[in-house]
Structures are given as C-alpha cells and as structure tokens.
C-alpha cells in the first residue's frame, strides 16, 4: 500500500525506509556513477511508493541548473516557428529539459520583456529568433554577460559572438530566382524584407546573383522594400503593375508576402502562372492548400530546431557563453516547386 502523509515526502523519509543515508538517496536520484544499479532501483521503488516529488527549486540551487531552456519566437501565427520549436522540444525531451516559449510579436520591447522573464526563471540558456523591428541586440548581449548562453536561429545579425543556426539564405534566394528564369520568366521582381536582418539581405543578394549569372539586368525599380506581411505583398504588386514595363514574376522574401502577391494578382485578373510567376520562402503549411499552390524554399525547420538545441547544450555543458569557436550551422535550402511558378 502507498504511504499516506500530511506533508511532502522528503529524501530523509526514503533514506529511513531503506536504512541508508540521505546522501546515498540523493546520489541515487541523480544517477551518480558510484551508486550501484540495485541501490538506484531500490530508491526509485520507494520514492514511487511514497509519492516523492523532487523539489526542482532546491535541486537547481544546488546544481546551478534548472534544466529549462527559454525560446523566443517572433510570432506563433507563423507555422515556420512552430515547426522549429517542434525540433527544439524533441531534443529537449530526450535530454530531460523543459522549454519555455515567449512570443515577441515582432516587437523589440516585448523581446526585452521575454529575456527578463527568462532571467527571472533562471533558464539555463536562450534560443531566439530576432524580431523584425530589432536593430540593436544589446538586450541579448546583456543577458549573455549575466552568464546565460544564447543561440540565434533563422534570424540573426552580423555579431558572430553569438552562435546561430540558419538556412543558406543566399543560396535559397538564388535557387528561387533561377527557378523562375528556367520557367521562362524574363522580368523578375523581388519583394524584400528589412535589410538590417541578415536573412533578408542574403535573399536579396541571392536574387541579384542569379540575375547576373543568367545575364539579366538588375533594375532597382524591380525591388520593393516590404515588411514581411500579406499587406506588403499586395502593395508590391500595385507598385509593380504601375510601372511602364511591369515584371512577369515575383520572388517574395517569405510566404506571407507571397500570399499577398497572389491575392493582389487575382484581384487584377492576372493568371498565375501563365501570365505571372510567384515564388515564396519558408514553405509554410498553407502553401500547398492555396490556389495556385505556392512554390517556396524549404528551410529544414525541424532540423534547424534540433541543431539550435545541440548548440545551446554544448555551450551549457562547456560552461561558455561566448562563441569563441565561431560556431554556426548553415542548412541547405530545398526548392519546393508548385503550381504558382510552373508553366
């Protein structure tokens, strides 16, 4: 029968039951190598029978670790980030870690609040994708200077002192543009994202490189400065259609922008892909469910999450917070051709 008590079971209760020291019980519960398997098993059975619940706060104060990782994402509405978090949580579960998630809503001030919340929770490390409004990352650097390892994923900046996991955005931009060229489109426009974020600058650079490689001219009026939204995709199409010589295809910096592009083209009764080709970036879940299905660049999101977790664990285990080894992981982009660009 289970023992019923009016208070929480302690390590001392387990030790008394087994006639061993509290230190032995503590070592057994923490899988200390000097404790035999038989003792570990006996402690586990008694702990279960007495409904022992470990005091995580006391345990974390003793070990200096909480086994909790904080994750900052720009938006929970974007499936891309949910998929990355899935990869992070898969690895965290395997390693006995819990994950706290904070949504910045693409706002730097919310981002700062998230970091403070994580510091208060004494997380062992922070994984983050920078909000599109964030230009100054000093709040991340301050957290790092307090001894908390930080790893960026997807969105980063040029500060190489923080490790990161990204897709090869330059190559992805090149592949997207090259695909449109190979489908026979002649005037390919680009709806860009905020250029202070490295991923968006690299996609623009890939777009320019593909045009040059195929001897097509780069024209400034064919680049529209968007803000990563459905609305900016619509505005871009209005701009492009007002030109004396409009484009016949658009490579959008990400899929929500591309969705706006498709919506506005339909409003103008322009047939996709016959008259106009569209390619996005991120391979969002909705891509294959809209009409026409959206061609996009897959960023290996689950792998990105797993690699980010591996990087943060490496830093935690080595007790380092600075990227002294210049650690970074760059994943291969994968083009996913669909109806929006295939003539």
TrEMBL record:
**Keywords, alphabetical:** DNA-binding, Transcription, Transcription regulation
The record's InterPro entries line, in alphabetical order, gives:
HTH_LacI, Lambda_DNA-bd_dom_sf, Peripla_BP/Lac1_sug-bd_dom, Peripla_BP_I
Q: Where is the HTH lacI-type domain?
A: 9-63
Identify the domain of life: Bacteria
Q: MF terms per GO, please? A: DNA binding
Recorded hits in CDD domains, A to Z, give: HTH_LacI (cd01392), PBP1_LacI_sugar_binding-like (cd06267)
Gene3D superfamilies in the record, alphabetically? 3.40.50.2300, lambda repressor-like DNA-binding domains
Q: What is this protein called?
A: LacI family DNA-binding transcriptional regulator
């Amino acid at each position: 029968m289970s023992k019923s008590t009016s208070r929480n079971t302690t390590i001392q209760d387990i030790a008394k039951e087994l006639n061993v020291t509290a230190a032995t019980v503590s070592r057994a519960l923490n899988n200390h190598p000097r404790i035999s398997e038989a003792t570990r098993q006996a402690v586990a059975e008694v702990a279960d029978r007495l409904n022992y619940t470990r005091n995580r706060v006391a345990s974390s104060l003793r070990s200096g670790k909480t086994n909790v990782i904080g994750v900052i994402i720009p938006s929970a509405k974007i499936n891309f980030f949910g998929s990355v978090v899935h990869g992070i949580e898969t690895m965290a579960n395997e390693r006995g870690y819990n994950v706290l998630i904070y949504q910045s809503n693409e706002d730097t001030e919310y981002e700062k609040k998230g970091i403070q919340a994580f510091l208060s929770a004494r997380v062992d490390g922070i994984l983050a994708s920078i909000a599109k409004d964030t230009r100054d990352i000093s709040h991340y650097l301050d957290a790092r200077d307090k001894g908390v390892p930080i790893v960026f994923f997807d969105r980063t900046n040029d500060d190489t002192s923080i490790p990161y996991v990204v897709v090869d955005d330059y190559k992805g931009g090149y592949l997207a543009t090259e695909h449109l060229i190979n489908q026979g489109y002649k005037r390919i426009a680009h709806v860009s994202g905020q250029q202070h974020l490295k991923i968006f600058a690299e996609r623009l650079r890939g777009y320019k490189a593909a045009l040059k490689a195929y001897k097509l001219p780069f024209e400034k009026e064919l680049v529209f400065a968007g803000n990563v939204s459905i609305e900016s995709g619509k505005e871009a199409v209005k701009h492009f259609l007002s030109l004396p010589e409009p484009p016949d295809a658009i490579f959008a910096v990400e899929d929500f922008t591309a969705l706006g592009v498709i919506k506005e083209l339909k409003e103008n009764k322009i047939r996709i892909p016959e008259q106009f080709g569209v390619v996005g970036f991120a391979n969002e879940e909705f891509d294959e469910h809209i009409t026409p299905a959206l061609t996009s660049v897959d960023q290996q999101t689950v792998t990105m999450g797993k690699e980010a977790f591996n990087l943060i664990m490496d830093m935690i285990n080595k007790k380092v917070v600075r990227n002294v080894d210049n650690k970074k992981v760059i994943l291969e982009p994968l083009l996913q051709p669909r109806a929006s660009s295939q003539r």
